Amino acid sequence: MLKLCSCNVTDQVQASVQCRFPGSPGPFAFRRRAPVSVSFSPPSRLGLTPVQAVVSTQKTEVAEVVKSGSGSLADRLRLSSLAEDGLSYKEKYIVRCYEVGINKTATIETLANLLQEVGSNHAQSVGFSTDGFATTPTMRKLHLIWVTARMHIEIYKYPAWSDVVEIETWCQSEGRIGTRRDWILKDAATGELIGRATGKWVMMNHDTRRLQKVSDEVREELLVHFPQEPRLAFPEKDNRSLKKILKLEDPAEYSRLALTPRRADLDMNHHVNYVTYIGWVLESMPQEIIDTHELASITLDYRRECLQDDVVDSLTSTEPTDGAETVSELNRTNGSAVVKQDDADCPMFLHLLRVSCDGQEINRGRTEWRKKPAR
């Protein structure tokens, strides 16, 4: 995968400013800018220590970038672009050292957070709200927000520290009650498909916390950003993203009880962020699977909000199999990969998150695992 070479701050800023990304006209379109030119004086002449000189230089360079054109500094430094038709959005991300886990690769929570980030940036790039809620003008007027109903993520190869991942995303209608977002993850250096994901969002009234159908007025605001023809990250028939998840009944084989949300787990809607549920699901996985396998796919159905005062139980059991599954050939329009199922090497589990005190169902899930690759 693409590795970042060592270079000084001036080179990085100049490279970012000189990049031109294709996009639709408007405040988020990128325009070629002249390189930032910064003059340097020896630290001794300025009366600065070497460390003070570096900090001073960095501040000067950032100030020059801010003055070099319109738009926020973040907009101009992102490695991102809208497609020529304005209907999909791509962004590149570097895997940081604090985003990898015990396998020395990015964790599933890291990748889920990146999906959330690129989705939010896409919404802002087409002019939706800049508060992170991706709401249209009508939605804000009516106090409506989006909440996650379902997420399905498949990872074929986990990126490692300092690898660069390119994520493409787009949205489309999902019936009368919600919208769908899809993602394709690739190795930015080779173009290799390393993952796919899809999610469904439904509309909720922020004040009453009740679900609401997408009105015609809101739909009209959204449709201009949706492909006219359906484009699916999982186009193959009977794909696993559509598979129904049965409720896990007690007694479960494995459990982790009394999980408590931290303040850092709350999102801007003041309920637990959907990525936190992934971590809670994995908390009740048997250790022998964690030691020998890596997560191949995860599907989560969200049943109710989880608030800061809720105490949560995580339950896990092996999913009964109904015969061997076949090799699935992925549609080559979005990438290509072959996923082979073997019950011995690819165990599957059902999961349930519930409120400890009364057993209310918060989330049900399914995970599939594969043997860890030799390193």
Automatic annotation (TrEMBL):
It comes from the Eukaryota. Its main location: plastid. InterPro entries: Acyl-ACP_TE_C, Acyl-ACP_thioesterase_NHD, FATA/B, HotDog_dom_sf. The keyword Mitochondrion does not apply. Keywords: Chloroplast, Fatty acid biosynthesis, Fatty acid metabolism, Hydrolase, Lipid biosynthesis, Lipid metabolism, Plastid, Transit peptide. Residues 86-221 form the Acyl-ACP thioesterase N-terminal hotdog domain. It is found in: Plastid, Chloroplast. Plays an essential role in chain termination during de novo fatty acid synthesis. CDD domains: 4HBT (cd00586). The keyword Transit peptide applies. This is Acyl-[acyl-carrier-protein] hydrolase. Residues 250-371 form the Acyl-ACP thioesterase-like C-terminal domain. Belongs to the acyl-ACP thioesterase family. Its EC number is 3.1.2.-. Pfam families: Acyl-ACP_TE, Acyl-ACP_TE_C.
